[in-house]
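tool_log.txt
---
The assistant was asked to compare two proteins side by side. It first ran the structure predictor on the initial sequence, then on the second. Raw inputs and outputs are pasted verbatim so the downstream comparison step can read them without reformatting.
(1)
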Amino acid sequence: MAKASLPLGNLRGVAILLIVAFHSFSAYIVSQPAQPLAFDLAPYDWRAFPIIDSERWLGFDLFCAFQFLYLMQLMFFLSGLFVWPSLRRRGWRKYLGRRLIRLGVPFVVGAYLLMPVAFYPVYRVTALDPSWQAYWSHWTALPVTASGPMWFLWVLIALDIGAALLCRLAPGAGDSLASLLAKGATHPGRFFVVVGGVTAVAYLPLAAVFSPWDWVGFGPFEVQAAFVPQYLLYFLFGLVVGAQGHESGLLDSNGGLVRRWASWIVGSFAAFFIWIIPTALIVKVPGAPVAALRVIGDLGLVIFAAAACFGMIALFLRFANARWPVIDSISECAYGIYFFHYLFVLWLQFLLLGMAFPAIGKGLIVLVGAVILSWAASVVTSRTLASVGTVLTRAAPLLGVFSTPDDRLSPTKISTPGTD
């Protein structure tokens, strides 16, 4: 990774760790259901609350709520940053072909092979017959396909297809939008207003119908209904910012965003309270004006998501310009860690059920264990793919598979689903 993109690489690594932490701690939040949820009964809410432990800690509620409201928006923004440079470099056909393989194959493998193994302990918690045979009969009889975190991959595929079509139909669109953004990016406050305003217009109508926790979809193609427009818009914002370059405009390490990093961080926490206070009043106060509080909370959500994304970017541009060995390695293995982590999170949470141990201790054990195991699985997978790629590259000329040296395969490295 080039020196200019070190802050983005460090941010990517930390973002992946936060995702693993969110899933690791979610079994121990106070707002979890009181009892494990039945595996065979609609609406199959165990997909959102897979493992439920009797040990709880309110601090995990606050942490998980904080991450839930902005983290995937940030991930889509980071994914979009690398799209237009890749389209310029490869052309839309090669770019789309690589993305379909890079994201599509892991999505299918993850949804149909990895997730059944990951959700097995969820079935065992309430099962009369805990055998794999019984589980498989229940799993295949479900009218839903629980894809877990794999949903991020198929949504990225859809967005990449849209970006490739944009490049095909309007090759200069990214550069034109980047030129337009160049004027606003020198004033991050104005750009923040645009991001917050556009995402609010997109989110509020859906928020009146769906809660942030409602999932819709067909088969493994599930997504949070209310957040779909936000994900699309943050990907688009990332695409436009990335078209301008990774060291200029909004991402300028000496720009206005970085100079006011502390204000963005403080503003993020302030905006969080605009969401959490109305949400708490709706739940805790009988007779509260629900409709008005819900609108305030929904506005707080979009303001917080934008402020948190701006704050995280500013913080890392200001303080993460050096190579951090551990985070650097995690960033390089980010895709693999994301792909594997849910398997280890659910099994570790399951193994800790019934143990008389404080929730904070259990959460940290799951986090550390899941990071180490998914990290190791990512490294092993990356090296295996690299070895296979090397063998095929050497064998290809003998087999006459490729006509020119430029067509030969190169070793594959797992890094992150949003880069190419």
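(2)
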Amino acid sequence: MAFGESLEVTGHSYGLRKEVLSPVETLAQSISAVCPTLTPFFTVPLAFTLAGNATWLAYVFATGGTLLVAWCISRFARYCASPGSLYSYAEMILPPWLATVTGWSLLLAYLGGSASAIGGFYYYSNVLLRNAVGRELPVLLLAAIVTGVPVWLACRNVKISARVMLAIEATSVSLVCGVLALVLWRHGFHGDPDQLHLRGTTVGGFRQGLVLAMYSFAGFDGATTMGAEARNPLRSIPRAVIQTAIFCGVFFTVCAYVQVLGMRMAAQDLGTANLPMHVLAGIGGIPALGFVIDVGALFALIAGILACITGAARLLLMLAHKGVAHASMKTTHPRYGTPTAAVIAAGLAILLPVIVLAAMGASGLDVYGWFGALGTYGFTVSYALVCYALPGYLRERHGQTTLATMTLPWLAFAAMIAVLLSNLYPVPEGVYGKLPYLFLAYLGTVLMLFAFRSRAKLPEPEES
């Protein structure tokens, strides 16, 4: 079936501005939700502590797994355009309660990713301030700024928000690529034997590093929440999903390889360096560029929060129209066509827990890690359920039973289950060991509310 032949979910705009985003602006939503600039600063060093010289290979494998999931999501996106994103896909084929789990898991993923980025922002901001002037700013002030600016932008014109995200991510990624190129130039264009021969790598360490590498891709589906606002959505959205997975996979793999190489040239440990890109800029011969990249990373975090809030708000809007979220979330701005109530609700939902944890003494890295882990559970479950739903959907709705449609979704589903289980066993230490129970409690609450709604025989949800 060709693009645009059939639309399972009609072009209902739900009060949003219809078809205002170009393909590039739609792509910006997915790229910004991933926030690729964050990976060389935080995730690659963490993965290196586990996978060592095989970190680059972990990202190659992670790219393959992500592309399997991206293929599944893109197949749905060829037939369905809706602000409900993965929830709308699951709702077409899965039982209502399981579709609800998909939607609320994805919502937690977006909110967890935003809250995680807040922690990363105030941690990294104060690291830079300490190094520059020997002082720090209050966490509350930094958290309020990094939440307030994206909320304000998300309440305004979605086209402006998309362009802001695109400009920030393009600039920050370009700066990182420039430093990586300088490091390779200084080293000479020949291979690194330690990495190419995977010296010192253990199977257990590689497996755990692979799980961390998968985290880097979370949010690559962000364009799917632009179902009402993307121009020619049945073409632009599936392309954006696939393009994001490919671009990020290449970028992350190159970052992992060059960062390990460059830090070895500097005789420093990548796993313990506070400002790895700063060090690499010095290796490249332009130390001042390191500070520019560090500042660019902070702006990239703002773009990432904006993308996640934008996606979460549209998902909340759709959940409200389907009767599984409060009706007040249906509100859209009469002039800007943005889901203002949902945007504000999402902003409060990410800011308040961060403030509470910071007041209790949690560091920015703690907040980054804890909420990032919760968000990853949400993404993994929602991705797994969509992959699980795809074979039945293509068979029942479109009569497709090819080898690819009957095997690739199950491979993607198995990959997501493997990632989920890797987070549960061996049992993580400390707070991380309690987060799976918190996630299960969250899903239990969602299902209880769903059951209560069903028994109350509330009015049927609106037709799409």
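---
observation on (2): The chain has one domain: 23-451. The CA atoms of residues 90 and 246 lie 24 Å apart.
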